[in-house]
């Protein structure tokens, strides 16, 4: 199977995972990116069973609405039962790098509310040590140079993602050449830089389960 087929397999597996758990008042959190898009499209087939979703980006909200699936503002729901989203990298503890699609802040907010975070990814995303994928950092525009200098002090190589403005009106710095052996410490340290909105490490609140698309089928991984 190629990468797109593996993504489709995990999107289908995520639907099979949540569908039996759906109740009238279930709120689904929906992520952003090509894997999440496949899940949204799969959800369209059972839209009558989905009464409420919240989306981690305007793009995902539009895609959900296109399928006739109700989308709510996070402030108008009192819980999110499940959050389904992709990742750019995961380690065995299910600590993630996210934000390749620039939606990291809203993704982290929905993750914070979610009862269960179901990550869906193809096997290329599973790594031993995070950091081969450049770490996205969302930054208030006027702080961009300051934050970049601070990231260099931490040992990274930040690059401004040209032409990208997040749904929150901010910019993204991608930190290259930055292995992350201690994701918890690094997540906190970068978030403490003045001008950072958040960074793409999901270590303080990792995924609860990873549905991983492999050539031998979809594997269900829990944090080690
Ligand atoms: C978007 C994300 C995505 O989940 C991540 O980039 C993975 O994307 P894809 O499913 O297209 O590989 O964090 O901000």
Describe the overall structure:
With 224 residues, the protein is an alpha/beta fold. The chain is 29% helix and 26% strand. It is built from six helices and 13 strands. It has a six-stranded mixed sheet with strand order 2-1-3-6-12-13, with helices on both faces. A four-stranded antiparallel sheet has the order 8-9-7-10. β12 and β13 form a beta hairpin. The protein is globular. The mean pLDDT is 98. The site of ribulose-5-phosphate (5RP) has 17 residues, from α2 and α4. Residues 31-35, 85-88, 98-104, 107 line the site of ribulose-5-phosphate.
Would you kindly provide a brief summary of this structure?
This protein has six helices and 13 strands.
Provide the helix percentage: 25-40%
Alpha carbon gyration radius: 17 Å
Biggest β-sheet: strands ordered side by side in the sheet: 2-1-3-6-12-13
* Number of E strands: 13
Number of helices: 6
Bound molecules: ribulose-5-phosphate
Please give the largest β-sheet. 6 strands, mixed
The average pLDDT is 98
Residue fraction in strands: 25-35%
Order of SSEs: HEHEHEEEHEEHEEHEEEE
Distance between the termini: 27 Å
Residue stretches low in confidence (pLDDT < 50, at least 5 long) are none
Question: Tags for this entry?
Answer:
224 residues, alpha/beta, six-stranded mixed β-sheet, four-stranded antiparallel β-sheet, 13 strands, 29% helix, binds ribulose-5-phosphate
